[in-house]
Amino acid sequence: QPEAAVPCSGGGMTANGAALLLLLGAAAAPGPVRGSQGDREPVYRDCLAQCERRNCSGAGLRHFRSRQPLYMSLTGWTCRDDCKYECMWLTVRLYVQEGYRVPQFHGKWPFSRFLFFQEPASAFASFLNGLANFVMLTRYKASVPPSSPMYHTCIAFAWVSLNAWFWSTVFHTRDTDVTEKMDYFCASTVILHSIYLCCVR
C-alpha cells in the first residue's frame, strides 16, 4: 500500500541551508576570468592568428569549406574552431616536449575530437546517464500506480533529469555559449528540483 505523503518538517531550514550554500559559493567564486594558461601562450595565439589568416578568408575559406565533412558543418564547426583545435594540440606537443604539464585551454583540458564529438567520452557518459534515467522512468511508471502520493512529483523529477542529461550530451558534443548555458541551467534545475523533492517527501 502506498505510503502517505509526509509534510516537510524543517523545510525552512532546508531552504536556509540551500541559500547559505549559494552565498558561500558566490563568495568563493574567482575574480574576473583571464583565460587559461594554454590560450594565453604566445605560440598558441600566433598559431591561431596565422591559421585564421591563411584558412578563414577568401580562397582559403572556400578550400576549407570544400574539404570539411558534411557532419562537421551541420554541427556548427567553423574554420576558427578548427584552427583553435589544431593550434591547441600544437601547443600541447610543445609543452610535452619541454617536459611541462599539459595546460588548459579556454577553461578546459584538451580532448581528442572524434567525428563531430568534442568530448566523446563525456558525451557518451552523459548519454548513458540519460538512458539509465529513461529506463528507470519506464520501470517506475510500470510498477507504481498514478494514485500514489509522490507519483507525479517523481515523474516530473525524472523528466527534469532527462532534460539535463540531454543538454549535457549536447554540450560535451559541441561546446558553444548556448549549449554551455543550457547545460549549466538544466543541471541547476535538477538541484533545485531535488531540494523541492526532499521537502515534499
Automatic annotation (TrEMBL):
The biological processes this protein is annotated with in GO are:
GPI anchor biosynthetic process
State if Signal is listed as a keyword.
Answer: yes
- Annotated signal sequence range: 1-35
Indicate where this protein resides in the cell. Endomembrane system; Golgi apparatus membrane
Instruction: Report the InterPro entries cross-referenced here.
Output: Per1-like (IPR007217)
The membrane-topology field of this record reads: Multi-pass membrane protein
What's an example GO cellular component term for this entry? Golgi membrane
Which keywords are on file for this protein? Golgi apparatus, GPI-anchor biosynthesis, Membrane, Signal, Transmembrane, Transmembrane helix
Q: Name one GO molecular function term.
A: hydrolase activity, acting on ester bonds
- Reported function: Involved in the fatty acid remodeling steps of GPI-anchor maturation where the unsaturated acyl chain at sn-2 of inositol phosphate is replaced by a saturated stearoyl chain. May catalyze the first step of the fatty acid remodeling, by removing the unsaturated acyl chain at sn-2 of inositol phosphate, generating a lyso-GPI intermediate. The fatty acid remodeling steps is critical for the integration of GPI-APs into lipid rafts. Involved in the lipid remodeling steps of GPI-anchor maturation.
Family (UniProt):
Belongs to the PGAP3 family.
How is this protein named in the record?
Post-GPI attachment to proteins factor 3
Per the UniProt record, the source organism is Chelydra serpentina
Q: Which gene encodes it?
A: PGAP3
